[in-house]
Amino acid sequence: MLEFIQAAEEAARRAGQVLRAWSSKFTVSEKSRSNLVTEADLAAQQVIHEFLRGRFPQHGFHGEEGLNEERPDSPYRWVIDPLDGTTNYVHGFPYYAVSIGLECEQKLIVGVVFDPTRDEMFSAVRGSGATLNRRPLKGSDNTELGQAMLVASLPVATSAEDPAVKRFLKLIPHAQTIQRTGSAALNLAYVAAGRVDGFWSTSLKPWDMAGGVLLVEESGGRVTRLDGSAFSIEEPNLLATNGSDIHQELVGLFG
Ligand code: IPD
Ligand code: CA
Ligand code: CA
Fold first, then answer.
1. Of the candidates 172, 189, 183, which has an alpha carbon nearest to the alpha carbon of residue 250?
2. Which of 37, 50, 84, 245 is the most buried (most CB within 10 A)?
3. Which of 136, 168, 196 lies at the terminal end of a domain, its last residue?
4. Tens of pLDDT along 176-216?
5. pTM
6. Are 93 and 20 within one domain?
7. Any atom of ligand 1 within 6 Å of the Cβ of 80
8. Cα gap 208→98, rounded to integer Å
């Protein structure tokens, strides 16, 4: 397992350098309305892929920017978001990250989220806990929804009629605050670090979540669907909290 987490961290650091190097010269394209991509996304994915493929040529790879290298004979698959928070990156809003998860037989076993702006490396290995720059991570102690800092990811191009927006509005009076920050991967890392008490979304892709879910679980938190049932990164339905009563209270409010 050590070689996997070390490789994931090294790949994420290399991608972080790429993102920094491109930060003053990228051009922006729209994949669809408000769904942005830059040369930095592509270059960072290439660096991660080349590095990890060099180390683990038999593994499968799945990345946001058109990376689909299936290896049916291998139980391992890397799930990669080279830049989570592209809109923030484009605007110079310093809240974005590199996210890398490793699955073994469809189960996440290693996860890293790297914030190159703050040089923060969040890492987790199944059964061994989560760390931030090598220090153990623990979620917040808060048990009161009324005192909670929550975060939600809404669909990229959304509208007032969107059920996700209605859900967001419904929750507002129940929490201390609800933010929409633009990087699902960092939101998960922040739940693990105790900076956020809970995060939910119904519009994420596997690569948005693969690096961060294990961070939450290994920091003592809980990840389920919004109705409290078992979570899978293959479905866009995630509720991640510090694992306190806040989790069940949110499930009740979403119901
Ligand atoms: C986006 C971010 C955002 C979420 C979007 C994602 P990207 O990822 O995670 O928080 O609301 O749904 O697409 O496009 O910046 O990698
Ligand atoms: Ca993403
Ligand atoms: Ca991305």
1. 172
2. 84
3. 136
4. 999 999 999 999 999 999 999 999 999 999 999 999 999 99
5. 0.97
6. yes
7. no
8. 10
